[in-house]
Amino acid sequence: MSHEHHSVNQPCPSRAELAAFLCAELPAPEMDAIGAHVSRCTGCEAAMLRMDGATSITLLGDGGRESTPQLSRYWTPNRTRSVPEQLGQYRLAEPLGRGGMGTVYRAEHVRLKKPVAVKVLDPRLVRDDRAVARFQREMEIVGGVEHSNLVRATDAGEADGVHFLVMELIDGVTFSGLLHARGPLPVPEACELVRQAALGLQGAYEHGLIHRDIKPSNLMLSAAGQVKVLDLGLARLRGAGPDELTRVGEVMGTAEYMAPEQWTQTHAVDIRADIYSLGCTLFALLTGEAPFPGSGPDSFLRLMCAHQQDPPPAITDRRPDAPPALRGLMFRMLAKNPDDRPATPGEVAAELAELAAGADLAALTTAGAVAAPNVTPARLRRRPAYPAHLRRWILVAGVFAAVGAGVGASLLRAPARTHSVYTEPVLKEDPEGPYKWRNLLTKTPEKRFWQPLDTSLINLNTDKEVLTVVSPKPALLRLGTMSTPNYKIQIALGQTQWTGGCGVYFGGYLDAKNEFNYHLIDYRHVRQGPDRQYQLIRSHGAIVPCDPTMCIATNGIAGSYVPGPDSKEQILELTVQPPNVLQVRWNGVECPELISDSAARRVGQLFPTQPELVGEFGIYCHSTMSVSIARCITIR
């Protein structure tokens, strides 16, 4: 990661590392080190602000809590107001809401005496071309759309170097404010709120727009009983090419409400992603929380895994009064496959019309109805406090800023939760033979070969024995060195979508040309489409010189077709007895093709000088969604 403006010579953290920092998902020393770096690096500070800005601004006073954010004991972002009291014809009053990209103020047109809302880009971001371009795009998008259920822009401009957007001032409360004040809503009212929101999204869709950040805090109910869709800052044009403002691997949205495909294909999602988010919002209105609520320092990665693989909780478990038609609609809105969802928001609105019969939205906004309660509803418990060195940046929006940080990650193993994505395998000691299992996840692996990009990340949770690796390019992570020729390796592997190779390398050594050679066994898909097939592949690998740096070269030795992955972790086991690999098993099933005579001859050709398969071993991964864990290893 590089910046045009920074004041330190040490390398800047990658966007993924900054994202993990935002979510407090790094060990304390790394949290403190990155915090110290960001406090001196204006480029990283701007990047952090952009990540915060990926979550929309929430109105203060309707359930959001304004506080001074702190990422670590070394750094607290400066949130002091640094904009003039008047911008052009608009006199600014009190702030209505804050986010990383800027602040929304209550304001008044000095000549017309008309109250308005003015969104102001944070002055610290004026040197950030991408932030300015994104803000200017929001001006164009909001200004070009007219619909009764969409917030209306009335003006935009720049004054004294400050960029601002003027919008209608809505007297009302956000859906999140309603939930904080009232808890779960009656079925007709919840359906009517979402029906009107769907009409607003349909209007945006007919103007060629996809919102990409639908959630309760981006939907407002006015005092007149009309729903308004807020914040088109992340919207993109339907059918447009790759978004130049969204980098490859960057994730845009809010974790608790993002569609499965949005985690990996932000630049290519269509209106059905908004329908999924709207389904999550409907679930929240009916139950008090999103289908997959997030809390805890590791929830960002856990949420991604849940949205992509876990079935959503049945609405009838929480709301037995939900009619069958509503159950069916929500089931389709929350489908993992976009093809299984309603095609347009208009279809959703039509199906909700009958379910919303008798709704009284005016009663939701009567005096005192949305005042913050003295006791937080049980389903809306506040997130737990963390030690000072693990405090995340507390956002007014109450969600993780890492969503916009470019974390195209998968889970190696989802931390313990009610609906686990992977079933933890039982790894037992071999009852025969002088082997002893040893846990390797006691320290972060060393980087034997690592080509960091903005989305690259290595994170070890020693308490939960979870190693998370995000590596768009091939990576070798060293776990140790075998000095004895007889050993066993057992490794548990998992990916959310199995988009790339993952496995183990072993017997690594430097040859006469000072090139690092190794054996590799990895699991990968070898055919795309509905009949996708998988193989366990054995290869010879080497780290060789490439202009201008180093790269990995591989030569195939043998392959064995194996079943596709299920929702459990996959177990790879291999037993080494010189002069060859004696046994390879995948989920307990032997793979004889990998240890055949022809494979042995091929090994002899590719490894003419290697002594008895001893040497370095570790994890191999290669994918934009690559994650692996090594749980334990036995050595004699």
Spatial extent as radius of gyration: 27 Å
* Number of separate strands: 26
**Count of all domains:** 3
Helix content: 10-25%
Counted by DSSP, the helix tally is: 13
Runs in which pLDDT lies below 50 for 5 or more consecutive residues are: 1-9, 52-76, 237-251, 367-434, 624-628
The profile of the biggest β sheet is:
8 strands, antiparallel
- Distance from N terminus to C terminus (CA atoms, Å) equals 43 Å
Task: Give me the CATH fold name of the largest domain.
Answer: Transferase(Phosphotransferase), domain 1
- Which outline best applies? elongated
* Percent of residues in β-strands: 25-35%
Secondary structural class = alpha+beta
Overall CATH class of the largest domain: Mainly Alpha
Quick one: CATH superfamily of the largest domain? Transferase(Phosphotransferase) domain 1
Mean pLDDT: 73
Specify the CATH architecture of the largest domain. Answer: Orthogonal Bundle
Structure description:
One of its GO terms (molecular function) is ATP binding. Residues 90-353 form the Protein kinase domain. ATP binds at residue 119. The two termini are 43 Å apart. Helix 1 (15-22) packs across helix 3 (42-53) and helix 6 (187-206) runs antiparallel to helix 7. The chain is elongated, with a radius of gyration of 27 Å. The strands form 5 sheets. Strands 14, 15, 16, 18, 19, 20, 21 and 25 form an 8-stranded antiparallel beta sheet that branches. It folds into 3 domains: 49-77 and 181-404, Orthogonal Bundle (Transferase(Phosphotransferase), domain 1); 86-168, 2-Layer Sandwich (Phosphorylase Kinase, domain 1); 436-635, Sandwich (Jelly Rolls). The longest helix has 20 residues, at 187-206. Residues 1-9, 52-76, 237-251, 367-434 and 624-628 have low confidence and may be disordered. A hairpin with a 2-residue loop joins strand 6 (153-159) and strand 7. With 636 residues, the chain is an alpha+beta fold. It has 13 helices and 26 strands.
